[in-house]
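Worked Example 4.2. Consider the chain below.
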Amino acid sequence: MQDREQFDQLVLPHLRAAFNLARWLLRSREDAEDVTQEALLRAFRFFPGFHGTDARAWLLQIVRNTCYTWMEKNRSMGSAVEFDESLHLSPLPGPEAQALAGSNREQLTKALEQLSPRAREVIVLRELEGCSYKEIASITAIPIGTVMSTLARARERLQQLLTRPDPKEAVHDV
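Applying the procedure from the previous section yields the following C-alpha cells:
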C-alpha cells in the first residue's frame, strides 16, 4: 500500500503533463487518452524499481516511449491527424480576445504540426512543459547537445513558419 501512496504523491501530479505530451505527439485526443492510461499502468507496474528523484521526467519518458510504440503499431510517424486546438487549449475571455487568440493558436498549431516529430517533442517539453535541457535529454534519450541544437533549429523553423506571409491573405493592388 505504501507504493500506491508514493505513486499517487510522486507521479499523479504530472498526469496533465503526460497527457499534453501524448496529445502533441499523437495529435489525437482519444489516442492520447488511451496511451496516457497505458503509460500510467506501465509506470505503476514499474514504480517499485523507480529510485530516481525526478518522477516527472521518468513518467514523461514512459509516455514518450509508449507513444512511439503505439505509433509503430497503428500508423506511420508521418501521417497527420487534424489537431483541434479547442480541445487542447483553453479560450481567453471576451469574444474579440478569443477571436485573436484563436487565430494565433491556429497559426501556432499549424506551424508546430509542420515540425518533425523530434523537433515537436523537444519544443513541447521545453516550452509547454517547462522541462530543463537535462530532463529533455533524459526523457528522449538523446544527448543534451542534440537537445539544444534541435531546440534551436525548431525555434528558428517556427519563427520562419509564423512570420512568412500567408498567400491566402495577400492583398494585391489592381
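Residues 77-93 have pLDDT under 50 and may be disordered. Residues 107 and 166 are 10 Å apart (CA to CA). Compare this with Example 4.1 before moving on.
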